[in-house]
């Protein structure tokens, strides 16, 4: 029997789940707190400039192909992809950077010029990373995190040692040059944890980086949101924006309705793609599966200080994606995870979408997106934001040998308090719960509530974890689980 399913939130996982659930023949309605859909992947438009407000890296194109393929569609039916060349640059000093090419052969040559013999080592490392990718992304992450037995396969048995070492150790055994080490450690930051806390098996992220390349939807990541929205509408999904959920109504230990502006909206099944911790606060205490102590004990991905900046001229000596590693990588990591505080000298990331997408800024101008990773739960004030913008923009000018402060038309910031207010994000985290060894697969919060019938969860605090491709997978997993238990 088909069900009336109400979904809280409209991020990638919720959109994916809505498509699968509608395909099954269910009546599906998405309720979004904000005025536009997309969750953390919303879009900012101002004075002719366009910014992706959240995710800006398009990796693992095969996951997107698999998602749309489940509906006999292709990503190209909804948006156009551009492969970035170079994929990105990593800056270490004044006009001193390493460019990461759009193919592995050239990347191997780059490594060899920096550390003799490292090209051959990288080729072997990437072969192992591809093997891990094939096991993880084509199989393991499509399992619902119900049991530890899901992780036991012939392939994983051969790699069990990789779950008890970590990326940092593994990379340092093979490479000596600190710059190359940092480049190889960088991709696992998308998983939300330090490389020293991330199992070696997660080297599959290096294959996602070097092996599959970095792509850009023609008009930004919001193209993907629009594409998924269009697919959902084609399947009959309904959307209600400006709909803040006040309560999940439970009767006889079963989720039966949502409350919005005092109004009861009945449902056969409720699925939340919103922040997991926040969703449980919509339940009376006795119906919550996880205590505050539980959440406090978990390792969360960083929060972020973001700036969206409009410049009245083109920026020089830069690429679409740029990482600024001219300061102590390890110290910044300690300031996030070990002794949470604002970093004195922060690493930062800059993204100039108008280099690739001419519609992202008026002609002759540039749109710039800057990000500083920060500890979740950190103090957030306008004064701190301004201080740190000055820090990074001054370094940016020095490292790229140009003056740009006087060319700023506007800037808007987004930080921990905004993540809490706009997305109900636990401690203002930006990416969800980190994928550490003890927070992997069946050890993450469950897709199905253990306390309340007909209540399900999806997104980056549950399986498989942080990131846009995992969010698409999470939507599929929970839809399959709902089908199984309905």
Structural account:
The chain has 486 residues and is of the alpha/beta class. Helix content is 32%, strand content 20%. It contains 15 helices and 19 strands. The strands form 5 sheets. It has a 7-stranded mixed beta sheet with strand order 7-6-15-16-17-14-18. Helix 1 links the parallel strand 1 (4-8) and strand 2 (27-31). The longest helix has 19 residues, at 118-136. The radius of gyration is 22 Å and the shape is globular.
What percent of residues adopt helix (DSSP H or I)?
25-40%
Beta-strand segment tally = 19
What topology, given as strand order, has the largest sheet? 7-6-15-16-17-14-18
Average pLDDT reading: 96
Shape: globular
DSSP summary: helix tally: 15
- Stretches where pLDDT falls below 50 for ≥5 residues? none
For the terminal residues, how far apart are their CA atoms? 8 Å
Keywords summarizing the entry:
alpha/beta, 32% helix, 20% strand, globular, seven-stranded mixed β-sheet, single chain, five-stranded parallel β-sheet, 486 residues
Layout of SSEs?
Elements: E1 4-8, H1 12-23, E2 27-31, E3 43-46, E4 49-52, H2 61-69, E5 81-83, E6 88-93, E7 96-100, H3 104-114, H4 118-136, H5 154-157, H6 167-174, H7 178-185, H8 204-211, E8 215-217, H9 222-234, E9 238-240, E10 245-251, E11 254-260, E12 263-266, E13 269-272, H10 276-281, H11 292-296, E14 303-311, E15 321-324, H12 329-337, E16 348-351, E17 366-374, H13 382-400, E18 408-414, H14 416-423, E19 455-457, H15 468-485
Parallel strand pairs: 1-2, 1-13, 2-9, 6-15, 13-19
Antiparallel strand pairs: 3-4, 5-8, 6-7, 10-11, 11-12, 14-17, 14-18, 15-16, 16-17
């Amino acid at each position: 029997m088909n069900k009336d399913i109400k979904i809280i939130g409209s991020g990638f996982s919720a959109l994916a789940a809505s498509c699968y659930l509608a395909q099954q023949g269910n009546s599906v309605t998405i309720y979004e707190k904000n005025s536009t859909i997309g969750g953390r992947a919303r879009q900012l438009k101002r004075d002719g400039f366009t910014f992706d407000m959240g995710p800006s890296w398009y990796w693992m194109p095969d996951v997107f192909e698999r998602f749309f393929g489940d509906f006999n569609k292709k990503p190209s039916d909804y948006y156009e992809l551009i492969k970035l060349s170079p994929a990105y640059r990593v800056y270490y000093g004044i006009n001193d950077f390493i460019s990461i090419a759009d193919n592995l052969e050239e990347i191997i040559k780059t490594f060899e010029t920096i550390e003799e013999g490292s090209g051959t080592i990288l080729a072997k490392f990437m072969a192992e990373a591809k093997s891990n990718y094939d096991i993880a992304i084509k199989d393991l992450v499509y399992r619902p995190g119900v049991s530890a037995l899901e992780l036991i396969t012939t392939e994983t048995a051969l790699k069990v040692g990789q779950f008890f070492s970590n990326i940092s150790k593994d990379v340092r055994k093979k490479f000596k040059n600190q710059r190359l080490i940092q480049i190889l450690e960088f991709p696992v930051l998308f998983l939300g944890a330090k490389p020293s806390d991330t199992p070696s098996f997660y080297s599959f992220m290096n294959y996602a980086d070097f092996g599959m390349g970095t792509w850009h939807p023609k008009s930004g990541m919001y193209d993907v949101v629009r594409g998924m929205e269009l697919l959902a509408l084609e399947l009959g999904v309904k959307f209600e924006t400006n709909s803040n959920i006040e309560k999940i109504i439970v009767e006889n230990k079963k989720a039966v309705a949502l409350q919005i502006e005092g109004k009861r909206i009945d449902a056969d099944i409720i699925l939340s793609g919103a922040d997991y911790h926040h969703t449980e606060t919509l339940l009376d205490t006795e119906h919550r599966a996880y205590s505050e102590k539980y959440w406090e004990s978990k390792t969360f991905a960083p929060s972020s200080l973001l700036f969206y900046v409009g410049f009245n001229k083109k920026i020089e000596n830069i690429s679409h994606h740029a990482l600024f590693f001219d300061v102590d990588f390890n110290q910044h990591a300690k300031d996030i995870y070990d002794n949470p505080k604002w970093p004195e000298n922060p690493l930062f990331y800059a993204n100039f979408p108008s280099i690739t997408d001419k519609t992202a800024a008026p002609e002759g101008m540039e749109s710039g997106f800057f990000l500083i990773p920060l500890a979740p739960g950190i103090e957030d004030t306008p004064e701190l934001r301004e201080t740190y913008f000055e820090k990074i923009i001054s370094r940016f000018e020095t490292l790229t040998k140009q003056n740009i402060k006087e060319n700023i038309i506007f800037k808007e910031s987004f930080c921990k308090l905004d993540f809490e207010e706009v997305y109900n994000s636990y401690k203002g985290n930006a990416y969800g719960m980190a994928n550490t060894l003890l927070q992997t697969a069946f050890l993450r919060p469950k897709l199905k509530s253990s306390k309340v019938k007909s209540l399900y969860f999806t997104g980056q605090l549950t399986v498989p974890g942080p990131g846009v491709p995992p969010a698409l997978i999470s939507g599929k997993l929970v839809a399959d689980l709902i089908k199984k238990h309905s």
